[in-house]
Amino acid sequence: MDKIRFMTLGRHIYEQERKYPEATGELSDLLHDLSLAAKVISLEVNKAGLVDILGFTGDHNVHGENVKKLDVFAHEMMIKAMDHGGHLCVMASEEDEDIIHIPEAFNIGKYVLLFDPLDGSSNIDANVSIGTIFSIYRRVSPDNGPGTMEDCLQPGKNQVAAGYIIYGSSTIFVYTAGNGVHGFTLDPSFGEFILSHKNIKTPKKGNIYSINEGNYLYWHPGLKKYIKWLQEEDKESERPYSSRYIGSMVSDIHRNMLYGGIFMYPADSRSPHGKLRLMYECNPMAFIIEQAGGRASDGITRMLEIQPKTLHQKTPIFIGCEEDVLMVEKFMREYDVLKVE
Ligand code: AHM
Ligand code: MG
Questions:
Q1: Given the CA of residue 61, which atom of ligand 1 is nearest to it?
Q2: CATH of 208-340, one of 1.20.1250.20, 3.20.10.10, 2.60.120.330, 3.40.190.80
Q3: Is residue 171 a contact partner of residue 263, using CB atoms and an 8 Å limit?
């Protein structure tokens, strides 16, 4: 096994940036600010069992779902850490209905930040891994004023960087700036993210599938067929696959990316657009998985090609090893899966 050099996240970002003489260092500063937010959120998540922070706030987010205190904390922390660095023109969060304006003195930066502050939050009370997801674009509006909705509504293929932080058995920061996927584990003793997963590549084909099978009744017959096919015995194609579902997208996709597998949140007869959000969840994870050699789509269209219409739009998602996603797409075409009856 290759020995990994002792490398902090900060130094890695700096070294990546030095490969591009035209780089101004703004993206590096942005990623550095994000890592700071991640450390503070990680600390708070780790304290969740000790302080009286669990439970509902009584508020609902823009999707009408219950919001827990840690979601609110993570959302506010992200804004605090990011809104005065001078590199952003606008932000948007899964927890806020509208775009988030940057204070006037700092709002002419060239980047746009979209984030899900704490994904998988239904797992908080059970001490199960949750995560923060982020996505960075270059602004498209004139650079002498604040950012706009247009800056936020860009297709995923325009992302310049994306990443996630998992608060699990350890805290890990995974990012891509279009040059491979790199993972850094937080050393809690001295508070630094250290390179632990160099240039992550997902296998071409896996043997794990992740989907909420409780929704089986509502699936299209074609999807039912695909899942049953995964459960059949066939040595050559390593079937039956193992089923693994945490209910925390970041953790499910992270595990599958490392071990090999496919994660699915399809459309069904109750949720014709699926559950997960294109801008905060699906696009950043799709960018990362493609950089790791995998594939992501809505069953028909490559995720990163979808032109968003609204900030909080949902999409079905099939993401993971290339051959597995190709196979589910084949079942989709054959059985016209997206036409939910
Ligand atoms: P959240 O953004 O409210 O936390 O919801 C997103 C989460 C994903 O992390 C996970 O994959 C999915 O919801 C699980 O949904 P379900 O409980 O329907 O299986
Ligand atoms: Mg979420």
A1: 3
A2: 3.40.190.80
A3: no
